[in-house]
Amino acid sequence: MRNLNLLVVEGNLQKENENFRKNGIQTHAESLKDSLEYYSKNLNIDVFNPCSEKSFDKILPNIKKYDGLIWGGSSLNIYNDCIEIRRQISFMKECFKNIKKILAICWGMQVAVTAAGGTVKKSTNGAHIGIAQDIEINENGESHPLYKSKKKKFNSPAFNFDEVVTLPEKTIHLASNKINKIQSINFKSGVSDVWGLQYHPEITYHKMITLINFRKDRLINDRKCFKNELEIKKHIEFIEQEIKKSEKNSRMLELKNWLNHLVAA
User: Fold this and answer.
1) End-to-end distance of the chain based on CA atoms, in angstroms?
2) 129-155: average pLDDT
């Protein structure tokens, strides 16, 4: 694989990342870098966090040098209007003007959809806590390069409470499951060809279990996803069974296919 210049966008607030590090958890940008480097060492990766930058002047003058952008996850909710979220939407719009290939993952997809005129709301069918089950690729997805060699139905690491409800114009819908009708999409905005995923092929199930334990109190008391710690324990045991069946190359195939998409461009 030829050398590629990639921009990874960190979606979490700096405070959340500091909490991650205190608890021995990789930031989402660090997880992305590890997963990307599994496929190729010939990657020049820069990380940018729009939340903590008051100005984009440092990065915008050189933004066209990137072969692709990957925008990862976050604990934020797009409909909770705040300056950090507005900065992210604003930066995504700048990326639409300058970067041709974008892989938008979970929060990244929600930011991309919002920046392109779509809408995101709290999911009406529940949440994915560490895992999304039975994601099914539709006819559009079966012929899309995102899913080359992927099984038609699969499970994946995932962690989201929200869902895309209105798509940007001329979006191609690629996959669904019972929780989120919109599990993956492809649309164009400005110069950008955007591949969007609601789930996390780049994050391991082991990290998801760590995140569940890290967010245990919030999941019980704030999110009301579990009644007590016993329910969380049982859910973690379910994910541990999935780990025994999961295979790394299959789990991260979307990432590999996107990198090949960049090389072929």
Assistant:
1) 12
2) 98
